[in-house]
Amino acid sequence: MSSSIQPLLILPRTFHLNQYICSLCIRAPQHQWKVRRTVSTAAQILKDGDPKPKDFTPKPLLRPIGVPYPPKPGENSGIDPRPWRQRRDDLFDYNKHLVRRKELTEQAAKPYFRDWSRTQYHKGKTFISPARIFRADKSLYFPNMMGSTLASPSTASDTTSVLQDRISVVSVYSGRWAEMQTRSFTNGKNNSELGALISQQQNEGRKDGGPLLQRVEVNVEPDWMKALIVRMFMGGIRKQRRKEDWERYFLVRKGVTDEMREAMGMANSKVGYVYLVDWLCRIRWAGSADAEQAEKEGLVAGVQRLVEGWGREREEGSKRQGQKSIAAAGGSM
Question: pTM here?
């Protein structure tokens, strides 16, 4: 009798429901059904490895965050650069299939509403901002992101080209609610001291005409439909910003991977994050969710210190250039 029992239905999500029916009986009486429920691998991973949000308390950020390599324009475009021959070879590579299977397993283990459910605890705050900026020699880098800007919505632009040789307060968010969180750090009404510093530096300018201190916004919308809606309302977004800031607003759809989010401390995709990036694209300070008063003061102090450091570096660079010129003139004599 057991040899004639065949599986009828398997559901691979939250639980597996295997229903067996006797092949010798057409009507399948109730006493011949055998039901077995087993917890799936994804649910078991969540049960064992995912802590309860109620037990989580944001802690101060004590170590630098970011990627370990300097960014380059053109990176993280989201476009597969492999030629067709390599794609064909990878299609039949078993080891790469195992890597891809692991990635898909991790994605399946992540509940769809997990990030939303965590926003009710501490308003989604992932960490508390450091009181001081990170040391320059220990800091990590802000990765390059590619997307369209308000100035050129039809072409892709790099964030690295905008961040280099500038001191930037970068806001990274996805959605209106996260955008309002970043504004609690960067908006002049919420942080008047930072607004005054940015206005002062923009008025003074640099030798090349650009501002030394700037705000940069990165709107990450991996969903194509949400990105399309943002594109439809780009005219209204332009009206809310100065024309000079259009090139500093990025709409990014592709290239922001889970590894990149983890390196930058972006544990919750529904929360806004703010980064203080220096002229070498190094992350010197970071904030998450709604700003506290101490975090606003720490951001302002970090900006002031970087502005002073930029002045010292420029003076030292001028001295080195002058010494090289004198040495070259003496050698020619």
Answer: 0.74
